[in-house]
Amino acid sequence: MFETLTTDRLKRFTPLDQLEDPYLEVITRRSELIRADKGKLLLHRGSNTPHTFYLLSGKVELTAADGNTHQIAAESDRAKAPIAQLVPRIYDVSALSHVVFLKISRDLLVEIFRHKERMSGATRTARHGPIRSQDPLESPIYQDILSDLNDHRMTLPSQPDTALQVNRLVQEEDYGIDEIARLVLSDPAMTAKLLMVANSAYYRSTKHIDHGLDAIVRLGAEKVRDLVMLFALREVFNSKLEYLNKRLRQLWDHSRDTAATCLARIAHRL
Fold it and tell me: How far apart are CA 26 and CA 24, in angstroms?
């Protein structure tokens, strides 16, 4: 039974383990512990609760719209990541035992990580002195590229290998958000596309985010996996030659229809 929450306890979770104690102390003061008995429905599928939840004790079951379920126990590797992070929620989350949840405002986490990034930049500047002539954010070329990306006039190529690695990682039982972030953030094009999705009208919270890690936390591991696969496949099924594009679109449609048919047949047999 948890009566108090300590910074050491918070360091067991991702991405909170990247924060120093002063930030974690803020979280302990501004977060909420939620206790629930066995059978209690903790999160509703489709809800837009602007909070991040961590499982401190007990065991929960996540149920998707198609009826598929999986369980998460406290202290397991899967419990290191937020529970049902994607908003709107894509799972019903119910307690399989008495549970204790940590409830943190998502906006608070975004602000904390943003402040940490600003402070890190200020420390580097103080140590080495300002180098304004080398700041890429002030480059006209950078601004032109950023404008083209925001207006969808430019498409950055995504690396298929990144998508495959993320897909393999999410299929494992003990993956963490930090591992997914390490893979995705190594691909600038993929990171930029995830940021655009995270800041879209469908996923955006009250705060705009501009860091790849924030985008991954907001979207959730499974949605990130689906998106990076989609981005990579779009690159594969694309050509400057119109006749080849037509054939690729036909192949895409055939693959999509085949996958849908297989899924329907499997669901029928189950």
Answer: 5
Does residue 235 sit in helix, strand or coil?
helix
238/87 Cα distance (integer angstroms) = 30
Q: 138-236 architecture in CATH?
A: Orthogonal Bundle (1.10)
Any idea which fold 7-109 has? Jelly Rolls (2.60.120)
Q: What are phi and psi of 55, to 5 degrees?
A: -90, 115
Q: Give pLDDT tens digits for 50-79.
A: 899 999 999 999 998 878 888 999 989 889
Radius of gyration of the chain from its Cα atoms, rounded to whole angstroms: 21
CA torsion, ordered 177, 183, 188, 191, to nearest 10 deg? -30
CB count within 10 Å of CB 245 equals 13
Residue 209 has what DSSP assignment?
-
The per-residue pLDDT for 1 is 46
User: Which two tokens mark 99?
Assistant: 């549970």
Bridge partners of residue 167, in order along the sequence: none
CA dist., res. 81 & res. 13, Å (int): 6
Are 85 and 43 in contact, with CB atoms under 8 Å apart? Answer: no
